[in-house]
Specification:
Blueprint lengths: L1 H17 L1 H7 L4 H10 L17 H14 L1 H17 L4 H8 L7 E14 L2 E11 L7 E9 L5 E10 L4 E3 L13 E11 L3 E3 H5 L18 H17 L2 H8 L16 H33 L6 H29 L9 H13 L6 H12 L10
Parallel strand pairs: 1-3
Antiparallel strand pairs: 1-2, 2-6, 3-4, 4-7, 5-6
Helix pairs in contact: 1-3, 1-4, 4-5, 4-8, 5-8, 8-10, 8-11, 8-12, 10-11, 11-12, 11-13
């Protein structure tokens, strides 16, 4: 099924590419594009089969994301983030899944996982208040997954939960005016003292232990994978693709004739040739590593075996290194293109901005993730929600 989605998406890419400049300038993805991606099945790839989803292999999903991102990183980013949330909802209690999908299996979910919300226990659930930033694609979603801390009687945090909230219970504030990934409309979500029933929360501790009440009804291997791999890969995949957009670079520079440095065709410059080779190799290496890790994780889950922490740490190591390599690749291409890359709207310029914007997401914190891998290699305990 992943291949069928890929074929459908490839037919959409020319139009998505033509809308890339408008998405960047208007700070949002056109609704027509979201509708086309939904029709192609992108948002159902990681959705449970019992709700009309495809339960595709995650490596197939990220391949689709990369292809979209290569023509418009903002569109690829939104497709990736909105597309990964059905997987997480599949870990919630069955009642929560029914709340979202029973009437409309095509309902989409955005997120903002920072634990900035305050949850106060009340009869039957919690009262939630907070303001969350960076909820990519939230205007295209009917629900939101929000991070929050449970506050005890003494006013101190006692638990960290992910909370599922319907659109009627929050408002969106348009604050997104940034350098890169401008089309993602990653706006703020505001909640003021709303009731959250107990079945619409998921403990982050249980999730980190690869447990979730949703596994009782969604028993496939997809729902036994680590959040720290599935979600973070969704954040790196668009960055890899935009930096792998050296195809646009090649197209732009192939016929260019230098006006300085002795003139001559740019394509015959050995320094430009080496830059392309380095960028292409780094992107290929990243894709190969991430796909290898995903497939090993999936095979273990499929066999019902425990997933060792060493593999989870390796997956995080390779994911953040992938982001690091991708940013270095687009930096190299941007520099090699010279003044040509400075013009606004130029695909190389936009790719450079988008890659750097994606790299600052907490899931792409290279030093922190590499330090975790190092701790594990030395036999020290590693405790982190993104492993």
């Amino acid at each position: 099924m992943g291949n069928e989605v890929l074929d459908a998406v490839r037919a959409l890419l020319p139009a998505i590419g033509e809308r890339a400049v408008a998405a960047d300038e208007n700070r949002r993805i056109p609704k027509a594009t979201i509708g086309e991606l939904a029709g192609a099945g992108v948002f159902r790839m990681l959705q449970p089969a019992r709700y009309g989803g495809l339960e595709a292999h995650p490596a197939d999903f990220y391949r689709v994301v990369r292809e979209i991102s290569a023509v418009c990183c903002s569109t690829g980013w939104v497709a990736s983030v909105l597309g990964v949330h059905p997987w997480q909802l599949g870990l919630f209690p069955r009642r929560a899944q029914d709340d979202v999908w029973s009437e409309d299996p095509g309902t989409r979910i955005s997120s903002s996982y920072a634990p900035v919300g305050r949850l106060t226990p009340v009869d039957g659930g919690y009262e939630l208040t907070g303001r969350w930033s960076f909820s990519s694609g939230c205007e295209h979603a009917g629900w939101a997954l929000l991070g929050a801390l449970v506050v005890g009687a003494e006013g101190r945090p006692v638990d960290f939960l992910t909370v599922l909230v319907p659109r009627r219970d929050y408002r969106i504030e348009d604050v997104w005016d940034v350098v890169g990934l401008r089309g993602t409309a990653s706006n703020d979500i505001l909640v003021d003292a709303v009731f959250v029933p107990g079945h619409r929360v998921l403990r982050n501790y249980e999730q980190a232990q690869l447990r979730g009440p949703g596994q009782q009804v969604n028993q496939g291997p997809l729902y036994r994978l680590p959040f720290g791999t599935v979600f973070t890969s969704a954040i790196t995949a668009p960055v890899i693709a935009v930096s792998g957009g050296y195809a646009s670079y090649v197209s732009l520079m192939k016929e260019r004739v230098r006006l300085s440095l002795g003139g001559g065709r740019f394509a015959e410059d050995p320094f430009a040739q080496v830059a392309i080779a380095r960028a292409a190799s780094d992107i290929d290496a990243t894709v190969l590593q991430m796909d290898r890790n995903l497939r090993e994780l999936y095979e273990l889950a499929e066999a019902g075996k425990d997933i060792p922490v060493e593999l989870r740490l390796r997956a995080r190591r390779d994911q953040v290194r992938g982001t690091e390599r991708a940013v270095a690749a687009i930096d190299l291409l941007f520099k090699t293109a010279g003044g040509t890359s400075l013009r606004r709207g130029n695909p190389v310029e936009r790719a450079w901005r988008d890659a750097h914007a994606g790299s600052v997401h907490v899931a792409n914190d290279v030093e922190r993730a590499l330090a975790m891998y190092g701790r594990g290699a030395f036999g020290l305990t590693v405790e982190d929600n993104l492993v």
